[in-house]
Design goal:
Family: Belongs to the CobB/CobQ family. CobQ subfamily.
Keywords: Cobalamin biosynthesis, Glutamine amidotransferase
Domain CobQ/CobB/MinD/ParA nucleotide binding: 5-226
Active site: 326, 427
Pathway: Cofactor biosynthesis; adenosylcobalamin biosynthesis
Number of domains: 2
Number of strands: 25
CATH topology of the largest domain: Rossmann fold
Structural class: alpha/beta
Number of helices: 16
Radius of gyration: 23 Å
Distance between the termini: 20 Å
CATH superfamily of the largest domain: P-loop containing nucleotide triphosphate hydrolases
């Protein structure tokens, strides 16, 4: 059976996911077969496995860092918020239905057998399991029946490293307060603390490190500097959303309240001279070179939000290419019908930019795909013949009578291209063609595009995982961490 180490945080976005990914990579580099695990993930960024099962992207990133194939065993429970009080509940990669928070809180203990079945299967296959918690273990209103923080640590008998975020201030209060709100058995599981996102000279921090060790009776295993990596983010607190810089080629992504799979656009950020801005009001749109409507977990509500705040009108008036992915693609059509009440029921007028009608279905489409662009028009016409790969994950079926935009290897026809408006259900469709799209935008703008370099996202990710691992390895006491894993301390 595998040995385990658990990464918990003092709060959301403290850096649990990235530290877990780094450790997965370090263990791989050190010759161990490692795997990530998160019993319950709440996120709108998800992924489809080869088996057609849905899981959180954070564990996909960690699996990639570990050099192993993503498996739904690594994330048996995924919650995808549909509104402020409820989520779609996905267990072992399959949709179970929607639940409000109160009902799920009462129900979740019934999922412990599913959690432990998945964990035990992983444990039979790997040397080290890197478990990630969620939020904070010191949420005293949620500690009862916990299945993702200390509850999971107990079930796996895992030692815990507690991560605090110094960039947002108050890191010593975060660490001390978290430890002090735990009971004695839970405190005994915390074998080390990590201060994350530090900027400056560690020597200035040294007196504080000594004091927090004395106060908590827990060693500080390291101080990890603030770093920038081209690695997928997990949640809506992503710093990518705060970028407002306009570069030579400017891409504006509409930031829906229920935006999902925004990692689709990270590839553009890897190209010199390109800015990706997430906009949520008309004043932020400006004069971009392309507008993207991303995926959404509540397509109709996000369409109405865009209509009410004027973004829809601004998008329709724009003269640049418009590209919709998944939910954003559905919005571009003429009508969305929800007779089965998948979201809110009824029907709503679409943006009318593509000759297409969508009907929501209770059955979710989940499949890995690859294909080729065909019948492309307008600015992106030169994409014709370009291959791509990705995955579909949606609840709707769209019908159109015009030529399809992409032909998939499974025989399906996907998407529409009409003038400078484009739409597709395929997440990840830009990964292999972002450079060509940027060249098209440069040509339209009269800018020299010869310096745009092709990007191999797989190679880029490998380099970034190694770079992350190098930084974290240098920052942490790995000898102590291995002793913690082996329960020698």
């Amino acid at each position: 059976m595998a040995k385990a180490i658990m990464i918990q945080g003092t709060m959301s976005n403290a850096g649990k996911s990235i530290i877990a990914a780094a450790l997965c990579r370090i263990f791989k580099q050190d010759g161990f077969k490692a795997a990530p695990f998160k019993s319950q993930n709440m996120a709108l960024n998800s992924y489809i496995t080869d088996e057609g099962l849905e899981m959180g992207r954070a564990q996909v990133v960690q699996a990639e860092a570990a050099g192993v194939k993503p498996s739904v065993l690594m994330n048996p429970i995924l919650l995808k918020p549909t509104n402020d009080k409820g989520s779609q509940v996905i267990v072992n990669g399959e949709v179970q239905g929607d639940m409000n928070a109160v009902d799920y809180f009462k129900y979740k203990k019934k999922l412990v057998p599913d959690i432990m079945k998945a964990y035990n299967k992983l444990s039979e296959m790997y040397d080290i399991i890197v478990i990630e918690g969620a939020g904070s273990p010191a949420e005293i209103n949620l500690k009862q029946d916990d299945i993702v923080n200390m509850g999971m640590a107990k079930m796996a008998d895992a030692p815990v490293l507690l991560v605090g975020d110094i960039d947002r201030g108050g890191v010593f209060a975060q660490l001390y307060g978290t430890v002090m709100l735990l009971d004695d058995e839970e405190k005994s599981r915390i074998k080390g603390t990590i201060i994350n996102k530090f900027r400056g000279d560690v020597e200035i921090l040294r007196p504080g490190l000594d004091m927090i060790e004395n106060l908590t009776n827990v060693p500080v295993v390291g101080v990890v500097p603030y770093g920038h990596f081209m690695i997928d983010d997990e949640d809506s607190l992503s710093e990518r959303f705060e970028n407002k810089t306009v570069n030579v080629i400017d891409i504006a992504v509409v930031r829906f309240p229920r935006i999902s799979n925004f990692t689709d656009f990270n590839v553009f950020e890897c190209i010199d001279g390109v800015s990706v801005r997430y906009v949520n009001n008309v004043s932020e749109i400006g004069n971009p070179d392309m507008i993207i409507l991303p995926g959404s977990k509540n397509t109709v509500a996000d369409l109405l939000w865009m209509r009410e705040n004027g973004i829809e009108a601004a998008v329709k008036k724009s003269k640049c290419p418009i590209f919709g992915i998944c939910g954003g693609y559905q919005m571009l059509g003429e009508k969305i019908t929800d007779t089965d009440g998948v979201e809110n029921g009824g029907s709503v007028r679409g943006m009318g930019l593509l000759p297409m009608k969508t009907e929501f279905k209770t059955e979710k489409t989940r499949t890995i795909v690859n294909g080729v662009f065909e019948n492309m028009t307008g600015t992106l016409k030169s994409l014709n013949g370009t291959e791509f790969e990705g995955y579909e994950i949606h609840m709707g079926k769209s019908e159109f009578s015009v030529p399809y935009m992409t032909k998939l290897s499974n025989g399906k026809q996907d998407g529409i291209s009409q003038g400078d408006v484009y739409g597709s259900y395929v997440h990840g469709i830009f990964d292999k063609c972002a450079d060509k799209i940027v060249k098209c935008l440069c040509d339209k703008k009269g800018i020299d595009s010869t310096k745009i370099k092709s990007i191999d996202m797989a190679e880029l990710k490998e380099r970034e995982y190694d770079r992350l691992a190098d930084m974290v390895r240098e920052s942490l006491d790995m000898d102590l961490i291995y002793k913690i894993i082996n329960k020698e301390v």
